[in-house]
Amino acid sequence: MSTPVQPAPEAPPGGSGEEGRGSRFLDVIERAGNALPHPFWLFWILAGVVAVASWALNASGLEVEDPSSGDLVGVRSALSSDAVRDLITGAEESFVTFGPLGTVLMVMLGVAVAERSGLFEALARRMLSGLSPRTVVLGVALGGVLGKFLSDSAYVVLIPLGAVAFRAVGRSPMLGMIVAFVSINAAGDANPLIAPGDALFASVATEAAQLIDKEAVVRPTDNMYFTTVSAFVLAATIALVVDKVLAKREHHLTPDADLEAAAARQVVAAEVDDATELRALKLTGAAVLGYAALIVLAMLPTGSPLRGEGGAIVESTFMNSIAVFLTVFFLFIGAVYGWLTGQIKGSRAIPQFMAEGVRSIAPLLVLFFAVSQFLALFKWTGIATVVAVEGADFLKGLGAPTLLLFTLLIVAIALMNLVITSGSALWSLVAPALVPMLMLLGTNPATTMALYRIADSCTNSITPMSTSFMLCVGYLQTLRRKAGIGTLVSFTLPVAMVMLVVWTALFFVWYALGIPLGPGAPVR
């Protein structure tokens, strides 16, 4: 029979009686962060701040050379007739075309069927039954690190799974969400698998490097050795910080009783005997293999519509539209499992589950409206280009020793990333300046790309400017109404800071030993 969902512990080992100064400091951060307005209003307030800042910068006449075009660009004032006209007429398009919106909605349609059929709960319970509450942290962390190849879909799939995994071993499902989030967000660039983002990073680096050497080529695999080792080091680091620091504050993540009960009802719709459940899981596993086999067979011909130009696999229809295939995948396996266990008894059940899934993320859709309008304003002003170019010029003017320059570069990009949270956008802005600059100092472009990965990843999980950060806040609020920005920052800050130190140290050891970063990509 299906076992009842275990409640999150009120006071896990290392509770409030054992908290030290560090934990009290994080409590202060949590209270201060949660004292901020609701994220919906916060982004409108930030929009006002950006509008005033853009007016001041525009009035100052500050201009920089756009590294991608060579043109002089400045900041456009948001307090102008043109801005009001453009932003109002583009408001609907900004919301509808907001990146995470379509991904979240589409993937949730499939995830909702797999979740409400009881598949996720059954898998978690059987796979984690032999694991300790501490071991499950490493499992979720590894899943998050390795799952970044799913692109933005990883958040929609793995954050709820993190909650299920932690709930299954009697730990706070909210902490499971946070571990999954920080693993995807902060450690995702350590993924050993080649994803579309790797191809984009490499192409931008190649263009930048050819400003110095016309024959220079940076490949998507040029950081593969380093990122593969980094993935396991960072997953272990996340697990260690959770065990030594975050577990002492886990009692801060007790879900609201009614919301936790509602979540439990969603994943345990009816009792299923062990034999039926085991048979359903086995047949669902066969369905997974069949689905994967169909995808592989469809991609075998070099002229397959699932491939990209010239038969490319990384830059292909399949990889660029992974959300579509994930939606079908989860809908398919959820339907198979639900039919075999009797959770799905008619054709109406599937669209009903899908509708329930969309309703469950309604708060996220409201938040996305505010975020999309803020980002449209921020992009319109052009402040991001000025910040990136000025920061790169500052580093170039220091003339510091190589390792010190690397450290300053990591710190500077990590700080820029608090404002310009799109990894591809920030890399596109800084690479044309940083890659040639470091090449003139004898640094391989692949090394600059590795440094950028470290700096760009670690601060993703602590900035409310990130759409994935606000997505996680929204998920936390599905279990605890008062969860806010402070709640998430107080749990992600220790992980992010330790990861930044550990990953930087790993790179310096790698650099000192002269180990190649990838196939044919020397570190120096």
Properties at a glance:
single chain; 524 residues; two-stranded antiparallel sheet; mainly alpha; 67% helix; disordered N terminus
Major pleated sheet: 2 strands, antiparallel
N-C termini distance: 59 Å
- The number of helices is 23
C-alpha-based Rg, rounded: 24 Å
Structural class: mainly alpha
Low-confidence stretches: 1-18
Strand content: under 5%
| Average of the residue pLDDT scores | 80
Number of strands: 2
What is the 3D shape?
A: globular
- Please provide the ordered H/E string of secondary-structure elements: HHEEHHHHHHHHHHHHHHHHHHHHH
Strand order of the largest sheet: 1-2
Helix share bin: 55-70%
Provide a descriptive summary of the structure in words.
- A two-stranded antiparallel sheet has the order 1-2.
- It has 23 helices and 2 strands.
- It is mainly alpha-helical.
- Helices cover about 65% and strands about 0% of the residues.
- The relative contact order is 0.17.
Briefly summarize what is shown.
This protein has helices at residues 21-34, 39-60, 81-89, 91-96, 99-116, 119-128, 135-146, 153-168, 173-187, 196-209, 224-244, 257-267, 274-299, 317-320, 322-341, 349-360, 362-381, 383-396, 402-416, 423-440, 445-458, 467-477, 485-513; strands at residues 63-65, 72-74. The protein is mainly α and 524 residues long.
Please render the helix and strand layout as text:
Layout: H1 21-34, H2 39-60, E1 63-65, E2 72-74, H3 81-89, H4 91-96, H5 99-116, H6 119-128, H7 135-146, H8 153-168, H9 173-187, H10 196-209, H11 224-244, H12 257-267, H13 274-299, H14 317-320, H15 322-341, H16 349-360, H17 362-381, H18 383-396, H19 402-416, H20 423-440, H21 445-458, H22 467-477, H23 485-513
Antiparallel strand pairs: 1-2
